[in-house]
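Dear support,

Our group has been running a series of protein-ligand predictions, and this particular one with DQA is the one our PI (initials K.S.) wants archived with full inputs and outputs. We had some confusion internally about which version of the output was final, so please treat the block below as the authoritative record. The input we submitted was:
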Amino acid sequence: MKIAIINGPNINLLGKREPEIYGEVSFDQFFTQLQEEYPSIQFLHFQSNIEGEIIDKLQEVDESYDGIILNAAAYTHTSVGIGDAVKAIEIPVIEVHISNVWARESFRHTSYISAYAKGVIAGFGLQSYELAVESFMGK
Ligand code: DQA
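Confirmed final output from the archive:
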């Protein structure tokens, strides 16, 4: 199974950024652990702070991967373009968030992605990504 993880703006700062919300582990550290935890899965990790690059990557991995785990971060709440891309592609997308976006500011309660996602997992810290992997594995 091939799973692409696509992360949006500021996820490259994980570990340093608001650790009380996002934790103290960098995404690279977590990604190494994830690969060890699921050796049978071929993962791709892509992070960008640029909206168009995220759209390009969603289109690029379509059909060559079994699924996408997407944390579009702040673009979740603003990007019609990323929502349209998720709608347009064939493979399933699981929307994830590290924090519980519904327990935070009201502008984080809107998602341009959720309507086209297979499902949404939020609020479990980095475990949100693991839960998405388990879902793709049918567990
Ligand atoms: C986030 C939640 C977003 O509201 C925020 O802009 C992020 C991260 C999360 O994973 O909890 O950057 O997507």
